[in-house]
Every structure is written in C-alpha cells, then in structure tokens.
Design goal:
The chain has 588 residues and is an alpha+beta fold. The chain folds into three domains: 282 residues, 2-Layer Sandwich (BirA Bifunctional Protein, domain 2), CATH 3.30.930.10; 79 residues, no CATH class; 112 residues, Anticodon-binding domain (Rossmann fold). The chain contains 21 helices and 29 strands. The strands form eight sheets. Strands 3-10-11-21-16-15-14-12-13 form a nine-stranded mixed beta sheet, sandwiched between helices. Strands 25-24-26-27-28-29 form a six-stranded mixed beta sheet, sandwiched between helices. Strands 4-9-8 form a three-stranded antiparallel beta sheet. α2 runs antiparallel to α12, α2 crosses α17 and α14 crosses α15. The protein is elongated and about 110 Å long. The relative contact order is 0.10. It binds one RNA strand of 79 nucleotides through α1, β5, β6, β16 and β21.
Length: 588
RNA sequence: GCGGCGGUCGUCUAGCCUGGUCUAGGACGCCGGCCUUCCAAGCCGGAGAUCCCGGGUUCAAAUCCCGGCCGCCGCACCA
C-alpha cells in the first residue's frame, strides 16, 4: 500500500513539478530540479510570503539580496565554522554512529567544547568509553563540516570561502547600511529570499532535506528596552496559535496547547514580542497555503536543540502523513549574538542609537598628561612615549593610572613617573546611547512549503486526482477548451486562450471528451475552466467551471477576465449574478 | 560513513529463485486517426527499455558472482 507521500511524489514527478537532479549521471542525493509547474508553484509561494512578510510591512521591512559565497571570516564570526561542525564516532561492533562530543560530555560530565578530533579520541581511549548500546569498542573520531567550502579566485587557495548555510549573515553584515537607509529608526526588518547550501551528511527524504534550498528569512531588529509591538495587539491579539513548550516536552507531553498571541507574550512564554508577532504572521501564511490551524503548531526547542546563536527557538510544525510532523519554519530569538560577533570580528560600528528622554549625566575620570614634562624626562625617547600614550583611550589610561602603585606608572613596558599624569573628574550630558538591537528571526524553507502545499491540496475522487490548490498559489490559473474539438468552437476557444495568456498562466485543454478535459484540469489543480459550447457562437458567451464545486456560470466572452480576476482574488463567482448551471452527475 | 532492502519503456509492473523462442510481456500515459452536445478510462494504428553503470562466470546473463553509483529504512544531523 503506497502512502500519501509516495502518491504525491509520484504525482509531482509524473506531472513535472520536480525530479532528482543529475539523473543521467545516476542522480545526486540532496539536489532536486524543478520543472515548469514546480517553478510556477514555488514562485507563487514565494510571492505570497513576500506579500505577508514584506509587502504588508513595507514601511519598516525591506528586502535585500546578498551573495551566496562569503569569505571564511564571515562564518568564523557567525560561529558557524565552529558550530556547524560535528564530531562523530562509530561503534566497530554494531556500527551505530554517535556524536563523539556528546558521548564524552554524558559519560564524564565534562565539556568537550573546543576539543579537536584527536583530543576527543584521546579522552575516549583514556577513559575507555565504549558503545552505549552494545558496549563494543569505538572507532576513530571524525569531523563533519556541514558548510560547503570553496576558494575565491583561481590563484588563491588561501582565500577560503563558504557557501552560506543561511541568508541571515547577509542581513547582519548590512545592518548599518540599511539602518541608515531606514533613517535610523528601530524597529525595522531586513528580508531576504535566496539559495543556501548545507553539506548534509546523508539527505534522504527527497525534497524535504536538500543540500541546496531556498530560504525566506527576516532579521527583525528592535530595541529590547522598548519592544512594544503595537501591531501585535492590532493584528494578532485575538489570534490563537498552538504552542508545545519546551518545559512540557521535557515532561513527555507532546500535545500543543492553543494560546492567544498576546497572552503568550504577557506570560513570557514567548520571550520576544516581535518573535511572537512574526509567529502569528507565519501561522496566517501557512493557513493561506491550505493548512488548517489544527494541523500546525509551534514547538519550542530544548536548550540542547537550539542553534548556537539562539536564546529561544520555536519550530513551526505542519502535520504530514509520512513523518507525522515536518518543520517548515524556524523562529529564533537571536538577541544580540550576531551583531556582537560581527562587531568583534570586523570592528565595524554595528550599533543603533537610542534617544534618551532625559539627558544622562555621565561622570568619568579623564587623564591628562604634561607634554613638556614627558619631553624633559624622556628626551629623545619622548616620541615613542607619546605614541604609546596616544594608542590608549582616556578611560583605559585612567584605569592603569588608578591601579598603579608607587611612583611609577607602567604603560606597555615603559615606566612613567606618576607626577606627569593629572586625573580629572568630568561630567558629561549625553542625549543618546549606543545599543545593540535584539533580533527576532522567522525563517522558512521554500521547498518544504512546496511539499506541504502539494500534500494539503491533494485529494482523490473516485480514483481521479484533484489538486485543490489555494487559488493564489495554483500554478495554472485557468483552462480553456471547446466542448468538442470542432469548428467553430475551436476557433473561439483559441482566440480566448490567446487573450487569457496575456493575464495568466493558462492552458488549452485537449482530449477525447469534455469529462476527460475537466479531469485533466482538476489533476493540475486549475481553479477555473472556460468552455466554449454550441451556444457560444450565437450568444457570444461561454461557461466558467469552478474546480471545487464543479458548478458553472454563463458569462459573456468579454467578461471572462473580470470574473476570473475576481475569482482568483477570493470572490465567490456564483455571487456575481451570472446564470448558474448546476453540475451534472457523473455517468455510471 | 556503516548495516539491511531495492534499481526492468515517461509511470507502475511481469520475468530473476530454477540462466536459453525475452530481437523483454502488460497496464496507464504519450503521438496519429475515428467517435463524442458538459464531467476521465469506446474503436483503429503508432512511437517508446542497449533490463542503473562497470567487470567476471558461461556456448549463452534482465536472471548467477564481484565492484561502483543511486534510492528507501535504521544510527547521527536537519528549514
């Protein structure tokens, strides 16, 4: 008995939505090609995401595009080079694979962080750690780096680069530039849609786990001392989302509970209000893709399951037939981690400015030194001393002076008489302060959504497949056909097709019988089919058939586009006042 | 990467154990023609497979053996 998953993959490959890449060379796991319908469906999903996440928030969310290849320093700074690496060890007896670092941590209660493969192996040997399942001896510890590596420039093997495993770093790197363009106002978000690559160890579930996939992400920056999210209460306070909390999961509970978004924030179940807001939008977005609310929930990750940059993470789950659940998006509270790291590694000023309501008085010590005294004391060595003193900030110098005992102050190995320095206390009025914004990140995998849309659209009716795509994402919007393939019906249908192509992806349906043509349209999930029948030549009208009800309306030929437009926007075409033709029962 | 199972027209599959009319059969789909006044599968004809790749055994290999590639399931990782 083939599962729904198999049926859907079958269907999708047969109809040319997607197939495995590099087929003529035997295929390559983790890579899929999209066919024409797949491209249409995916781009409709992306466009809908753009509408929900960017277009509806355009006054403070902007989309950018950055390269896929980045110099190694970027992912050194982001922590990926270090954390996207796993150490594995295999049992020589039962051939099970384990995370070597986890094994050491569990057994010995010590942290294995920062250890190299050989060091972990040494610890395993010394402490005679054996396979936790069968007790067999363990083999060599080996390292997986999940980043794809390459080099920038043909002559520069030293210029190591990585393919990005997430789009986020492109947004963090451009934080300051976009912040300026956004007139230095928080909060704001940077969105990006693009390909990412992860060198997965063994991807197997077809298009569910790919080595290269499209990600749709927002890095949303806000001032955590003033996180108030009016939109949350405006758009989402009445919205309920289903949450499965980490503390419940730890107790073995696996049933998510519905909670209003505002309550989840007030109760500190979701730590970041903006994270909560985007989760609410994510729920609405997934609903628009055809997933009812009782089939999706947010699962909070346990601390051990979270990525290195995250303070709190929720995975958005959609219930699927094959695996029970499938993560379609991740919602991470990245707080200040990434900007801090990039400030540290790049020395760039990635701060935002917070205006204070009242000026802050800052008292601090400033150190001044007597230049003439330096010259008379050090003579020809004086320039060297000035250079050393100038390299230090006033605060740092004040600290050294304050901490020095005796009559001399040692600065960078040079002893300077204390009498040369004069410490003054100063008061400054400050109207702004520098802050590192906090970050809430919603991140979607486009190909997984593509699968979800297929699974939720898939239905069968007496052995016939009907894809009930939401109209917005349906790859082909309208079909045209003559009732029978004869003139003058064919000529009218062809002219209509030509007109419809100017507006939509449309399809001219051919086939043995009208029933077969409708079946063909249903199989592709085409929402509307326009049929030219024997009344059309004299009356100048046609019928429009609705995929889901199979009912038709009679519409003048020049009104067809108007009706289809309305129908695709969600208007019930049967309420437009055109004559309705009830469906004919299937023949036995 | 390791272990188990698998790979035959576009798709599903017969054949494999027990090598030989298998120059690989069928169904769906596809192409051409006929029929057809509203919900697929009526008729006629046609195209389409060096049986995953490479090597070996044999007079003879889709079939037996070895290696590789790919897929599925398990370990680990994961949007």
């Amino acid at each position: 008995m083939s599962s729904k998953f198999d049926k859907i993959i079958d269907y999708a490959v047969r109809k040319g939505f997607f197939w495995q890449s590099y087929e003529i060379y035997g295929g390559q796991a983790g890579f899929y090609d999209l066919g024409s319908l797949g491209v249409l469906l995916k781009s409709n999903i992306i466009e809908l995401w753009r509408e929900f996440f960017v277009k509806q928030h355009q006054e403070f969310v902007v989309e950018i595009e950055t390269p896929i290849i980045a110099p190694a320093i970027v992912f050194k700074a982001s922590g990926h080079e270090e954390n996207f690496t796993d150490y594995a060890v295999e049992c020589l007896q039962c051939h099970r694979t384990f995370r070597a670092d986890h094994l050491v941590e569990e057994r010995l209660g010590i942290s294995a962080e920062g250890l190299k493969a050989e060091q972990i192996e040494e610890v395993i040997r010394k402490n005679d750690i054996r396979c936790p399942v069968c007790g067999g001896p363990l083999g060599n510890v080996y390292r997986f780096l999940l980043l794809f590596q390459t080099y920038i420039g043909p002559y520069s093997p030293s210029n190591l680069a990585y393919l990005r495993p997430e789009a986020a770093q492109g947004m963090f790197i451009n934080f300051k530039r976009v912040y300026e363009l956004m007139k230095r106002r928080l909060p704001f978000g940077i969105a990006q849609i693009g390909k990412v690559a992860r060198n997965e160890i063994s991807p197997r579930q077809g298009l569910i786990r790919l080595r290269e996939f499209t990600i749709m992400e927002i890095e949303f920056f806000y001032d955590e001392s003033n996180p108030t999210c009016d939109l949350l209460y405006e758009n989402c306070s009445d919205e309920y989302i289903n949450i499965l909390r980490a503390e419940d999961r730890a107790k073995g509970i696996d049933k998510p509970l519905p909670i209003s978004v505002s309550e989840a924030v007030d109760e500190k179940i979701i730590l970041s209000p903006w994270l909560a807001y985007w989760m609410c939008i994510a729920k609405k977005f997934v609903n628009a893709l055809g997933v009812p609310n009782n089939k999706t929930y947010f699962e909070e990750k346990l601390p051990s399951e979270r990525a290195h940059y995250s303070k709190q993470t929720f995975d958005q789950i959609v219930i699927v037939e094959r695996w029970g659940k499938l993560e379609v998006s991740g919602h991470a509270y990245r707080h200040t981690y990434d900007l801090e790291r990039h400030i540290e590694f790049s020395r760039a000023d990635l701060y935002a400015i917070r205006q204070l309501k009242a000026p802050k008085i800052i008292r601090r010590s400033v150190v001044k030194y007597d230049k003439n005294a330096v010259i008379s004391f050090f003579g020809t060595k004086a320039p060297q001393v000035f250079k050393v003193l100038a390299s230090l900030s006033s605060e740092a110098l004040a600290k050294i002076v304050a901490e020095s005992k005796g009559d001399g102050v040692v600065v960078e190995g040079i002893e300077i008489p204390k009498t040369i320095f004069r410490v003054e206390d100063v008061e400054e009025k400050v109207w702004v302060e520098k802050i590192i914004p906090h970050v809430a990140e919603p991140s979607f995998g486009a190909e997984r959504l593509l699968y979800i849309v297929l699974e939720y659209a898939y239905s069968e009716d007496g052995g016939k497949v009907i894809m009930k795509f939401p109209k917005r994402v349906a790859p082909i919007k309208v079909g045209v056909t003559p009732l029978v393939d004869r003139e003058p019906l064919e000529g009218i249908a062809h002219r209509l097709f030509k007109e419809l192509k100017r507006h939509y992806y449309a399809m001219y349906l051919e086939g043995d019988s009208i029933g077969k043509k409708y079946a063909q349209a249903d199989e592709l999930g085409i929402p509307f089919v326009v049929t030219v029948d024997y009344e059309s030549p004299s009356k100048g009208d046609v019928t429009i058939r609705d995929r889901d009800t199979k009912k038709q309306i009679r519409v003048p030929i020049d009104g067809v586009v108007k009706v289809i437009d309305a129908g695709l926007k969600g208007v019930d075409i049967f309420s437009l006042g055109y004559p309705i033709i009830e469906r004919v029962e299937d023949k036995e």
